[in-house]
Design goal:
This protein is elongated. Helix 3 runs parallel beside helix 5. It is an alpha+beta fold and 330 residues long. A hairpin with a 2-residue loop joins strand 6 and strand 7. Strands 1, 2, 3, 5, 6, 7, 9 and 10 form an eight-stranded mixed sheet that branches. It has a three-stranded antiparallel sheet with strand order 4-8-11, with no helix packed on it. The longest helix is centred in the C-terminal third of the chain and has 32 residues. 52% of the residues lie in helices and 19% in strands. The protein has nine helices and eleven strands.
Length: 330
């Protein structure tokens, strides 16, 4: 069974070489539109648009009703352009928000409007649905559904987190150790995700991302040591490694959630369902890998013995590249 899983991981690694676009990890970053009402009908606007190199995505928010906007001011941050301006509107409720240019991209837009009375609306616009009607009231159910989807997408498009789970699958042998390992990882990153999102603990994001990449290198190295009959405590108790580094990965999830933001008045729901989305995506990924391994076992396909180390070397090499890349961005 272990050889089959390793073979599956090798196939996935080869596919990542053929399709290198997601190799930078966290490649899918949504655009973010935030409006805050300071007094009735007057909003400060923040519009954050992803950039690829020097190219800014040609996205523009447009409201269906009458609005008056000041001249925007633009500043560049790593990976994005941020525009700010003031918007005057009698009422945004009932208007349609449309993102011009969104259908020609692969980027989502998360929009949030905070009103002076403390209520708020959060919506998600996609290339297939580039417009949305701003409701007069927002329910916790709407927020839960939105952040559940965001959590699933974050883990499935977060290649570094998936590679870490890959490595854990190689390190844990047997069903019980696998369950213990995945559970430990889940508990650990849930703790730090909540603490960091609620502001109890703060960690600088750039070093966190670098050490997350280094954690993948460490686990991949432990897999190689086990294959060389030099198994250490990591191979004997993979749940311990999963828990320790899971605390770190939780800060990474919190950084992504921090870019998205949490709706005032529904923070517990948003945080809970974002985390549930992460877990759902993670379990779907693990299930897909184990399901593929079961199919290959039925087909009696067995990889050669030397192939067992290929995935670990591949994952470790990619993770080391990320480590150096992220350190260089400090």
């Amino acid at each position: 069974m272990r050889s089959l899983v390793l073979g599956c991981l090798s196939i996935v690694w080869l596919l990542s070489l053929l399709f290198p676009a997601p190799i930078s990890a966290h490649e899918v970053r949504p655009a973010y539109l935030e409006l805050r009402e300071h007094q009735r009908g007057e909003f400060s606007v923040l519009w954050k648009v992803p950039m690829r190199g020097e190219m800014r995505l040609g996205l523009t928010p447009v409201f269906s009703g009458h609005t008056e906007a000041s001249e925007p001011m633009t500043r560049l941050v790593p990976g994005a352009a941020i525009e700010t301006w003031t918007l005057n509107a009698r009422a945004l409720q009932g208007q349609t928000l449309r993102i011009d240019g969104l259908t020609a991209t692969m980027t989502d837009v998360l929009a949030r409007i905070e009103y002076a009375d403390g209520t708020a609306w959060t919506g998600r616009l996609t290339p297939s649905e580039p417009s949305a009607t701003i409701p007069t009231a927002v329910s916790a159910v709407d927020v839960a559904g939105l952040y559940l989807i965001l959590g699933v997408e974050h883990i499935l498009f977060g290649i570094d987190h998936l590679l870490f789970v890959f490595a854990l699958l190689m390190l844990a042998q047997g069903i019980r150790p696998l369950i213990e390992t995945i559970t430990a990882f889940t508990v650990a990153h849930s703790i730090t995700l909540a603490l960091a999102t609620l502001g109890v603990v703060q960690m600088p994001q750039a070093p966190v991302e670098a050490v997350i990449a280094l954690s993948i290198v460490f686990v991949a190295t432990e897999v190689v040591h086990r294959e060389q009959a030099r198994a250490g405590v990591s191979a004997r108790a993979p749940w311990l490694v999963a828990f320790g580094f899971g605390l770190l990965h939780g800060f990474g999830f919190a950084g992504a959630l921090g870019e998205t933001g949490l709706p005032q008045g529904h923070i517990p729901f948003a945080l809970l369902f974002f985390n549930l989305g992460v877990e759902a995506g993670q379990l779907a990924f693990v299930g897909a890998v184990l399901g593929l391994a079961a199919l290959l076992r039925r087909a009696l396909w067995m990889p050669p013995a030397w192939w067992r180390r290929v995935p670990a070397y591949a994952i470790g090499s990619v993770a080391m590249f990320w480590t150096m890349q992220r350190i260089a961005m400090f």
